[in-house]
Amino acid sequence: DVKVTQSSRYLVKRTGEKVFLECVQDMDHENMFWYRQDPGLGLRLIYFSYDVKMKEKGDIPEGYSVSREKKERFSLILESASTNQTSMYLCASRLKMTSYSGTGDEQYFGPGTRLTVT
Amino acid sequence: AQSVTQLDSHVSVSEGTPVLLRCNYSSSYSPSLFWYVQHPNKGLQLLLKYTSAATLVKGINGFEAEFKKSETSFHLTKPSAHMSDAAEYFCVVHYNFNKFYFGSGTKLNVKP
Fold first, then answer.
1. Residues of B in contact with A112 (CB under 8 A)
2. Which of A90, A102, A110 lies at the smallest CB-CB distance from B94?
3. Of the candidates B91, B44, B101, B35, the residue with the CA atom closest to the CA atom of residue B63
4. Alpha-carbon separation of residue B111 from A3, A107, B12, B90, B107 (angstroms)
5. Is residue A102 predicted with pLDDT exceeding 50?
6. Residue B95: φ, ψ to 5°
7. Does residue A89 contact residue A2 with C-beta atoms inside 8 Å?
8. Which phi and psi angles does A78 have, rounded to 5°?
9. Average pLDDT, chain B
10. If you count Cβ atoms within 10 Å of the first and of the last residue's Cβ in chain A, which end, N or C, has fewer?
C-alpha cells in the first residue's frame, strides 16, 4: 500500500513566522502535490512537482513556495505566515504523468495538517 | 472549460437505505473519474475510479458508480448505507497532465 505521511497533524504558528510542512511518500512516485482545503471552496492546488527539483505553480501559489530535493519528500513553505493561510493542508502523490488524456493514475493523500495562524 | 459539479452539498439517509451521490462533469476530452471519501480530520481515500474500461465501476465498501457519457455523469451509489459511511465524498475529474478538478463535496449523514 502507498503511504503518504505528513509531519504534523496540527500546527499553531504566529503571524510572520516561517512555516515548513513536510510530506513523505514511500512508493517511488514521481508526482507530488500540495493542496489546501477550506469549507465551501473544496481542494485547491497550491503547487505540483513532477520530479525531483521540478515544480509548477498551481491555482493559488501566492505566499507559498516548495522544495523537492529528494523524490520521496515534498515540502511546502510559508515564507511569512498570515492568518488567511489558516487551513487544512493536504499532500498527495501519484505514480507519474503518462499522457495528456486521463490516465487513471489516482492520487494518494496524506492525513492532512491543520494549520492555525494566530 | 473543464469542471465538475456535485449536485448536493448534503445528503441524509437512514441506515440500511440506498445512497445516491450525484456528480456531473463537463469535458471536451475523455476524462478519468474518481470518487474519494474523507472522514473527519482525515485525508482523502480512494473509493473507485473510471478509466474508460467498464462503465459500471465497483469500489471499496460496497460502493459503485456508473459512467454515463451521454449525461456526463458519474453518480456514486450504495445499496444499503452503514453508519460508518457518514463522511464527505468528493468527485474528481482528471483531464490531462497535472489537472485534477475536485467537486465541492457532498456530506453524507446516516441516521440510525
1. 41-43
2. A102
3. B35
4. 32, 31, 7, 21, 13
5. no
6. -100, -50
7. no
8. -100, 110
9. 90
10. N
% of chain B at pLDDT higher than 90: 71
CA distances to B56, B57, B83, B93, B111 from B53, rounded to whole Å, are 9, 9, 31, 16, 35
Tens-place pLDDT, residues B15-54: 999 999 999 998 767 788 999 999 988 889 999 998 777 7
Q: Which residue has the cell 504566529?
A: A14
Which pLDDT score is estimated for A96?
74
Nearest Cα to Cα of residue B11 among B84, B111, B112: B111
DSSP-derived 3-state class of residue A31: strand
> Closest Cα to residue A112, out of A61, A60, A76, A70?
A76
Closest chain B residue to the Cα of A10, Cα to Cα: B41
What is the bridge-based pairing of β-strands B10-14 and B106-111? parallel
Torsion sign across C-alpha atoms A111, B6, B19, B108: positive
CA B6 to chain CA centroid, Å, is 8
A100 chain-B contacts, CB cut-off 8 A: 96-97
Taking only the tens place, the pLDDT of each residue in B4-13 is 999 999 999 9
Q: Is the dihedral of CA A58, B7, B41, B85 positive or negative?
A: negative
Determine, for residues B45 and A40 on separate chains, whether the beta-carbon distance falls below 8 Å: no
CA nearest neighbour of B85 among B104, B112, B65, B67: B112
